[in-house]
Amino acid sequence: MSEKKLSFPPFTNEPFTDFSKEENRREMLAALAHVKRELNRTYPLHIGGKEVYTGDWIISINPAHTGETIGKVSKAGLEQAEQAMQSALQVFESWKKTSVAERAALLVNAANLMRQRKHEFSARLVFESGKNWGEADADTAEAIDFLEYYAREMIRLDETNEHRPLVPVAGETNRLSYIPLGVGIVIPPWNFPLAICAGMSAAAVVAGNTIILKPASTTPVIAYKFYEVMVEAGIPADVIQYLPGSGSEIGDYLVGHPQTRFISFTGSKEVGLHINQLAAGQAPGQIWIKRLIAEMGGKDGIVVDETADLDAAADAIVASAFGFQGQKCSAGSRAIIVQDVYDELVDKITERTARLIVGLPEDNVPVGPVIDNSSYKRILDYIEKGKAEGKLLAGGGKAPGSGYFIEPTVFSDVAEDAVLMQEEIFGPVLAISKAKDWQDAIRIYNHTEFGLTGSYFSADEQRIGVALEHMHCGNLYINRKCTGALVGAHPFGGFNLSGTDSKAGGHDYLLLFTQAKLTSRKN
Ligand code: NAP
Ligand code: MG
User: Fold this and answer.
1) Which of the ligands is closest to the CA of residue 327?
2) How many domains does the chain have?
3) Cβ-based neighbour number of residue 470 at 10 Å
4) Which residue range is the domain that position 359 belongs to?
5) Are 426 and 376 members of one domain?
6) Which of 252, 271, 423 to mutate to test the pocket of ligand 1 (most atoms within 8 A of CB)?
């Protein structure tokens, strides 16, 4: 109890860097130059704290310069996956006994190290994931936030009996303790390759679990750098097994493994549903129901009524649709506008979109490349479909460059049932639909199998009240963009096929990585 009284200053969000300041620009340019010199290195797997080279490689490339290799990362097969499981099981026996105070302090150490090298992390994101400076800086800031936030949250959870005492019973001492689950498989996506990777891993580890971290195959170097900083911060090197490999090969093996206790997944609906099914069974020797935390895709949208500030709405729609090339689960890929202001707002959106410059992330232009060739081809296919489903107002195809560049594309007059309004495209494509009135607009907004983020733009309090109640999504915003959730302020997770609504960055998140043990003792 006594050593639990470790106290940190209250949590505050890591500020974003103002790159209009010359000094910050200079530091970022220096970080980019530094990271550029480190491109094309090789990286090992880490199993049981030891480096492993398998001779098989995942090649990570720069999506803005497909000829440039970011790094070669050793690729795990089934043999290494089994070794990683055995190592994680073994170290769980000691890691679960470390105090909460110690685990939390190690996360804060990691946050401090990451903060010292903030621009270096961001520069890696620029090269490996194709984020511009601002997007990369926000990704790094969010990773720092997750480390700081979950450290404090674990302490709070551990002090439950003091903050939320159980009902007293004479002659008994009753306590509730949140203990870890066991070995978890952590499977992040490539689109927030630092923040989501760090958040999912840190939450599991601070709760006393050990993990096998299988990074996304397009962004394994960033994940390696995260692993490295955790070890440097003092987390024992074998608490996290860093295990890049094919999702369908080692992913399936580990998800189906009888000793896997939980799976923390963030990614597409298709893969999430597949994991859900595979995890549901009882493998021979398995003695628990595997816990699944699955955060998946979205078909998020912004609703605008005739009382709204149309310039603010246009700014928000364009920022939500095209920030990081529309490759956010929260991306506002739909705009639903009432007919009274439809033409006027569509013009404003089109003008703003046409002004967006496409180019190299390292030059910090607004729109960079999409992540890889299969995304590139898939998005271009959707754009061709869109030409049949709506009216093309901006973009409409490839943009020049030696990477996967696509023009920010806007279609208007898209029917609510169109593919463009229903399927997650995960690229710079915005579909606009016309609604009869504000109630019809809310109805169209809800007409999707997803339910992640949404926004409602209006000046009418009564309508805002209705929107707050009826727009069915995990993260609903009023008069602002639908991207950019902040740790602690906007706990994040979606409804319906957007996932299990885990609310990352919120007070409830660590409950998912723990189990509550009640002990009742007769005095
Ligand atoms: P993805 O293709 O589903 O991949 C996500 C992760 O799953 C990757 O690490 C991938 O590994 C792995 N994987 C693939 N097949 C697997 C299998 N059979 N078993 C276990 N793991 C497997 O998604 P993505 O393309 O990386 O990310 C984009 C998607 O993520 C979008 O749908 C987006 O909306 C969603 N997302 C959701 C949230 C949220 O909070 N709701 C946040 C961010 C992103 P490989 O790379 O090796 O295939
Ligand atoms: Mg993918």
Assistant:
1) 1
2) 2
3) 14
4) 300-487
5) yes
6) 271
Give per-residue pLDDT as tens, 474-496: 999 999 999 999 999 999 999 99
Q: In the predicted model, is pLDDT for residue 4 greater than 60?
A: no
Which residues contact residue 258 at a Cβ distance below 8 angstroms, ignoring those fewer than 6 apart?
283, 284, 285, 286
Ligand 1 site, residue 189, Cβ cutoff 6 A: yes
Query: Does the C-beta of 451 come closer than 6 Å to ligand 1?
Result: no
Query: Does residue 308 share a domain with residue 289?
Result: no
pLDDT of 7: 78
* Any atom of ligand 1 within 6 Å of the Cβ of 251: yes
Tokens linked to 390 = 């709506």
Asked, for residue 378, whether it belongs to a domain, the answer is yes
- The CA distance from 290 to 260, in Å, is 7
The DSSP code for 424 is -
Residue 492 domain-assigned? no
User: Which amino acid residue places its CA nearest to atom 20 of ligand 1?
Assistant: 251
Q: Give 219 Cα–ligand 2 centroid separation in angstroms.
A: 11
Is a pLDDT exceeding 50 seen at residue 2? no
Q: Are 17 and 28 in contact (CB under 8 A)?
A: yes
329 belongs to the catalytic site: yes
Q: Would the pTM count as exceeding 0.90?
A: yes
Smallest-distance ligand from the CA of 73: 1
Q: Which residue has the tokens 């190690």?
A: 106
- Report angle CA 424, 430, 431 to the nearest 5 degrees: 85
The residue annotated as part of the active site, out of 135, 197, 306, 329, is: 329
Answer yes or no: is 70 within a domain: yes
pLDDT digits (tens, 9 = 90+) for 65-104: 999 999 999 999 999 999 999 999 999 999 999 999 999 9
Report how far ligand 1's centroid is from the alpha carbon of 301 (Å).
21
**Summary mean pLDDT of the chain:** 97
268/331 same-domain check = no
What is the pLDDT, as a whole number, of residue 6? 67
Q: Is the CB of 474 under 6 A from ligand 1?
A: no
Judged against a pLDDT cut of 50, whether residue 26 lies above it is answered with yes
- Rounded CA separation 505/494 (Å): 13
Please tell me if the CB atom of residue 247 comes closer than 6 angstroms to any atom of ligand 1: yes
